Amino acid sequence: MFERFTKDARDVVDGAVKHAERTGSGRVEEVHVLLSVLDRKGSRGSFALSALGLPPDSGRRDDLVRALPGGTGTGAGAAVPGDRRRAGRRPFGKDTKSLLADSLRIAVGHHDRHIGDEHLLLALTGRHGALAGVLAGHGVTHDSVNRVLYGDDGPAAGSAAGGPGK
Asked: How far apart are CA 16 and CA 157, in angstroms?
């Protein structure tokens, strides 16, 4: 699957690992992926966020980060007791693995031959829970991202490809 990742998507994954390291988390969790997507500039995911009113280095993005579990996004995914992995060898949490698989399904649903950071963003918005709720509270939903990127709700909306009905 990773061979289909664009440079932007790989950079998001690398950034998520760095966020996990910085927070002392024993695993790379979904919140780290979201923080890394929010860090991006000049990518399709960043374009979608900007079009939805969350441009890079904006106060609205800062508000979103503060609303994440853990207050600032920095406390998310606390270290796992007894996890003595070498630095840089953080495993992906179960939900993060599922998120990456969802991004592949979304890309395939849109007939894209690659997995970009936009697919990771769509996968994040199609999930249930606190992260999707925080994004939706800032106007970033699966449907709104699809509209920005594809001009409509796209073929994946509401399907098993990561849509809101997932």
From this structure: 26
pLDDT tens across the length of the chain (166 residues): 677 899 999 999 999 999 999 988 999 999 999 999 999 999 999 999 999 998 887 788 888 888 887 644 444 444 444 444 445 478 999 999 999 999 999 999 999 999 999 999 999 999 998 999 999 999 999 999 999 999 965 554 444 344 433 3
Provide the residue type at 140 as one letter: V
Distances (CA, A) of 126 to 48, 87, 165: 15, 31, 8
**How far, in Å, CA of 65 to CA of 126, rounded?**
18
pTM of the model: 0.81
